[in-house]
Design a protein that fits this description.
single chain; 326 residues; alpha/beta; 12-stranded mixed sheet; globular; binds S-adenosylmethionine
């Protein structure tokens, strides 16, 4: 097996695959007017997904995350999970979801081979939830999380985008939530994308502000596992749950990058904020193109840059995260 290593010595065991650009939320920082399809979008079919995942697995990718848009809007999500979970070399299959479909489907996803779950939950207040996401689904999402916690997932994590003036005063409520639950809440610093400049300027808050509050409350930083995601994780002996901080604007954030992305239309993106995509779809039409697919992925990795240009305001091809798979 040829492992994927770039010219900066980073390896890539982790692929984030978007299943759709469609979303049923209208989050103020992402798709404030909701999703609007441009023409008839044709997202990757299950057979194309199987070939893609086989190609990456042959290059050492062992952790796959399904994302979007909202990946649970795919009617064929269950067979997709079963298919990717059985590709040799794939050890973890995770999903990032807004959680609205958890109560009805999470048990079946788990049985099909899903091993980890990330649920977006920006606030613990139902009214704020409606304001931020545009939808009154707080009860379903939190009910779905409770159900998921009993299903034996390797991990259940919650994602909250930190928003100045909207949800930045909720740490005490989160501490109550975490006291008895084996779950991690990860505060993600709002990222500037092509479409959200005004919102970003009004609501961006450095994640370090939350870290200072954590340290003051007796939480301590845990050592980072080699295959860990981008979060700095804090724990406290009095709480079962943990708090993660994802700070894309922090120094050296990109030095620990271990992931690649593929869009719902089959474009390889070397960086969330890169300014080009590499079309893989033509090589996903037949099992006979396996070698060519593997060669294209490993050659193109040579173009991966050392870091994103967010500090310079460069958001690359990404108008909003639903377009690439956040
Ligand atoms: N629909 C799914 C969900 O809600 O989790 C998956 C896709 S969504 C784009 C993935 C994550 O990106 C969500 O946690 C969302 O809150 C986050 N996100 C979207 N736009 C963002 C931004 N500009 N900055 C930081 N996080 C963002």
């Amino acid at each position: 097996m040829v492992a994927l290593v770039d010219r900066f010595g980073r390896s890539f065991p982790y692929l984030r695959l978007s299943l759709t650009e469609a979303c049923n939320y209208s989050c103020s920082y992402c798709l404030p007017d909701g999703y609007r399809a441009e023409g008839r979008a044709r997202f990757l079919e299950p057979d194309e997904i199987r070939r893609l995942v086989r190609g990456f697995a042959a290059l050492g990718m062992s952790k796959l995350r399904l994302t979007g848009g909202e990946p649970t809007l795919r009617k064929d999500l269950l067979p997709i999970i079963s298919t990717v979970a059985t590709v040799p070399g794939i050890r973890r299959v995770a999903i990032t979801t807004n959680g609205t479909h958890l109560p009805r489907h999470v048990r079946a996803w788990r049985e099909a081979g899903l091993t980890a779950l990330n649920v977006s939950l920006d606030t613990l207040d139902a009214g704020r939830f409606r304001e931020i996401t545009g939808h009154d689904r707080f009860a379903e999402v939190t009910e779905g999380v409770e159900l998921a916690l009993g299903l034996g997932f390797d991990s259940v994590k919650l994602n909250a985008v930190l928003l100045r003036g909207r949800n930045d005063d909720e740490l005490p409520a989160w501490f109550d939530y975490l006291r008895g639950r084996d779950v991690a809440i990860r505060f993600i610093e709002l990222m500037r994308t092509g479409d959200n400049l005004d919102f970003f300027e009004r609501h961006h808050l450095r994640a370090e502000a939350i870290e200072q509050q954590l340290l003051a409350a007796g939480w301590s930083l845990r050592p980072r596992a080699p295959d860990a995601g981008p979060a700095r994780e804090y724990a406290h002996p009095d709480y079962r749950g943990r708090v993660g901080i994802i700070a894309p604007y922090s120094k050296d954030f990109c030095a620990g990058c271990n992931r690649l992305r593929v869009t719902a239309r089959g474009d390889l993106r070397l960086c969330l904020f890169g300014d080009f995509g590499i079309g893989l779809r033509p090589l996903l039409q037949s099992d006979d193109d396996f070698d060519a697919l593997v060669a294209r992925i490993s050659t193109q990795l040579g173009l991966k840059a050392a870091g994103h240009g967010l500090h310079q305001g460069q958001t690359g091809l990404t108008p909003h995260l639903a377009s690439i798979g956040g």
